[in-house]
Specification:
This protein has about 325 residues and is mostly helical. Helix content is about 55%, strand content about 0%. α6 runs parallel beside α13 and α10 packs across α12.
Length: about 325
């Protein structure tokens, strides 16, 4: 019988590599795996952050929010807060330009005393002139008097201050008005602590609006909510046959005040007492209806400058008479 010889190459070719990676099962490797997975997930979420979008697109998105939403967004992270603080004026302008077209012209800000020409400030703050303003600075129960060292006390600015202070106060009592719960009465001449605390809080909000466009827009949001709730209440009052603003369901849900540009009843009389809140439908000062043009005419922003010129002229006449 012949012996078959096998070459070394044939022996090597017949061999099969069966080696495999060992599967490690230990708590240590499992912790490392979970840590790595968490790190990858965190990286993905960061790449999907709103602020990673182009700058103009982020501003367009924020412009669709309400001012209260912007304040809530500030609390999400330091990055959001820094972005909003840096672009506050532009964000507030974008929101106001389509949501509060009417309210912006009705509720302008009084001018800060620090923004008035230093040479004119003594005329505005003159004790003799302040005495003439006593009738206009008569304290209301629901409005804190302005600080003459803080804001201009021309007639226009005094009215602007009172109108703005009314917004948070009217908003505060909306729940009472909705459910028919009477607003607490304050006896003439008394100054209960709860009311002093409330009007001081309202004034603090207005002071924030004097320096923050976003707070100013937040006041518009609050007053639009109060106005729509008031119109809805008065519409449900079958005994009230007065003329009112036409407000559809879509108007209420839009978050915009454009429906207030329609023809409606005069709404500039200042509610000098909280008793006026019960029948108040829409308080929209500084405007009047033009019958010929069939549109609302608003008090111009330059009215403050007109008042200042009058004050300077009045002061100079007094000096010449001496």
């Amino acid at each position: 019988m012949r012996k078959i010889e096998v070459s070394d190459d044939e022996e090597l070719g017949a061999l099969e590599d069966k080696t495999e990676a060992l599967t490690l099962h230990s708590k240590r490797t499992e912790r490392a795996r979970k840590k790595q997975a968490k790190k990858v997930k965190s990286t993905k979420s960061q790449s999907q952050n709103l602020l990673d979008l182009p700058y103009e697109l982020v501003l367009d998105i924020l412009a669709l929010l309400q001012p209260s939403d912007i304040f809530n967004l500030q609390r999400v992270s330091r990055a959001f807060r820094d972005f909003i603080v840096q672009d506050e004026r532009r964000i507030a302008r974008s929101i106001t330009s389509w949501r509060y077209v009417c309210l912006e012209k009705c509720f302008r800000l009084p001018i800060l005393m620090e923004d008035i020409d230093p040479s004119i400030q003594p005329y505005v703050q003159s004790p003799n002139r302040q005495e003439l303003l006593t009738i206009h600075k008569k304290p209301y129960q629901h409005v804190q008097p302005p600080d003459p060292t803080e804001i201009c006390t021309c007639l226009t600015c005094l009215l602007r201050w009172s109108s703005l202070c009314l917004i948070p106060d009217f908003a505060h009592w909306q729940k009472n008005l909705d459910v028919g719960e009477p607003i607490p009465m304050i006896p003439r001449g008394s100054h209960p602590k709860w009311n002093q605390t409330l009007i001081a809080s309202n004034a603090d909000i207005v002071r924030k609006a004097l320096r923050s466009p976003l707070w100013h827009a937040r006041l518009f949001e609050a007053h639009l909510d109060s106005t729509t709730r008031s119109i809805r209440r008065q519409s449900a009052n079958k005994g009230n046959k007065r003329r009112r603003f036409r407000m559809e369901k879509e108007d209420m849900e839009s978050g915009s005040d454009l429906f207030l540009e329609r023809s409606g009843p005069p709404s500039f009389d200042f509610p000098f007492h909280r008793d006026n809140y019960y029948m108040l439908e829409a308080y929209l000062p500084n405007r009047g209806w033009n019958v010929e043009q069939e549109r609302w005419m608003y008090m111009p922003a330059e009215q403050h400058d007109i008042d200042i010129r009058y004050i300077v002229s009045w002061a100079e006449r007094r000096l010449n008479l001496r």
